[in-house]
Fold:
Amino acid sequence: MSDTTPWAVLNEAHEILRTAVRGVPADAWTRPTPCTEWNVTQVLQHAAGDQLGYAAFITGGPGPEDNPFAPSGTLSGDPETILDDALRASAAAWSTVAPGTREVPVPIPPNKLTAEIGVAACALDAAVHGWDIAVATGRPSPLTPALARALMPAAEATVTDPIRQYGMYAAPHEAEEGDDEVAALLRFLGRRPGWTPA
Structure:
């Protein structure tokens, strides 16, 4: 399976998540994250599980073994391998979806989206959880204004109250003066742009 797809937004988001996980220090897997209920390991489990979920809906293949919305905090293998397997499955699945496809099955309500919104929703999940892991381990935001701008339509289309109840996105925060596209996206997803580990 290839690591890249015809979808540039997904390739960029996958690389953000992959880089974030590769940069986690050995002693940082239990650190808190902007996902207040989950530590770094649990965010990884959730993010990998979501990518497998998208792949399974598109291909009919196997989904995640564990519930991505109740991550255990205990990994079954090497973190990078777990993530790489999930990203490859996601990339392979999205590589079968042509631009302009009107309905693509996805694991989030309403369970069918256009290709462009669906792939951006999958990318949004990878990118924001890459941000979670990066800032939780003391690194700068990996999000760019251009990527945030590309992801916002999918966020607005899919991050509804039912999705927020699952825990991956909290209630939105009000915009503040001086916010750029990255800050606006993070606030919409219930995150504080300046979040740092306590």
